[in-house]
Amino acid sequence: MLTTTRVDNAYDVALENFDTAADALGLNNDIRVMIKYPERILTVTVPVRMDDGHIHRFEAYRVQHSMVRGPAKGGVRYHPQVTLDEVKALATWMTWKCAVVNIPFGGAKGGVTCDPKHMSQGELERMTRRYTSAILPLIGPDQDIPAPDVYTNSQTMAWIMDTYSMTKGYPIPGVVTGKPISLGGSLGRSEATGRGVFNTIECACEHLRRQLKDTTVAVQGFGNAGSVAAQLLHEAGAKVVSVSDSTGCIYNRNGLNIPEVMHMKFLTGHVYGFPESEPISPAEQLALECEILVPAALENIIHAENATSVRARIIAEAANGPLTPAADRILEGKGVFIIPDILCNAGGVTVSYFEWVQDEQHLFWDAQDVYNRLERVMKTAFRDVLKIRDEHKVPMRIAANMLGVGRVAEAVQIRGIYP
Ligand code: NAD
What we know:
This protein is an alpha/beta fold.
């Protein structure tokens, strides 16, 4: 099992990101207090009868950071290190992310502190259903729409959708996104985050006048976001020299055969031990001589202590919050081009929005239609962020936050204050 140094409090980082953007935008204090903090925070106890008969209590959360621009939107994370502060940070980032890609949603996030790798399917189902019923007053297709995040998936969404629908008495597929296709899911949703990451890397390469096919890539985290990004980069001719998951990192200087790594991951649940590769340590992976580094696991992976060893030219933040502010400053100083999380991984929520639209209309699009619309949204957002970066001479992260925070500030100003 790999250890992760999670040094900074993610919520402090989210607040710092906000303050920096708000300062750069010159937002007055009245606007700041209305949009900075979560609108609603719910902490719940989730008792679950485990397979051996005893009842285990899980602590769980749903945080709605903002509903200024539309219903709250955000994933549900199952992980042993989930804390309320982490969920607050992730909900905050969702607000700015939805605004960056200009979709009519606010931000939310949910989490259950649990170790899903050591739970049976039955335990996971009972926990998911009880969690859903505990947060039921907050969620709904016009209020707050959960989606998958770390260690949750389309099956988790199906359980949430079923629990919610049974309570209301009729099917309500629009209560979650990232559902199975047979329940009203969207084609292209499962690969949307990785595809969006790929679209923004294409933009960055074009901006930096680099040919994608001449690049080498390392991907940390080989789950939903990381594996799809690796696959698309591989298909585009980039050499993916290293990938990792929580069991270990693998390396092949000539490039890994990503479809075969994916196949092995599917069969065994891990990438470690892939035949045409050698094992390397997590620290070695982050320090690899490669053009593009894609952190696609958890927060605070790159921090003050290891940022100086990073040699990549582009960092594409598939994960939320993988760089601490200290790492950010070090890497900016080294001239690394950072595609910030709220831009880079916004493909997931964008296709979640497409799924919600299709559910509301009961009219479904083909996969190519979804990909084309996604690419348009991602490339427009990239251009919008780059424009702010150039106009204000700020780093990409501040530019992205300025775009997101600025759009929410504009909306709250027009809505005014109730009562
Ligand atoms: P996932 O559960 O599908 O995959 C997570 C991967 O990270 C797994 O392969 C796991 O083994 C690996 N991992 C965990 N700890 C690790 C470590 N210390 N070192 C290396 N690998 C490690 O989750 P996901 O949905 O791919 O989410 C990954 C990141 O992307 C998260 O930060 C999430 O918030 C973000 N994200 C996901 C989506 C989405 O639609 N799934 C959307 C936006 C952002």
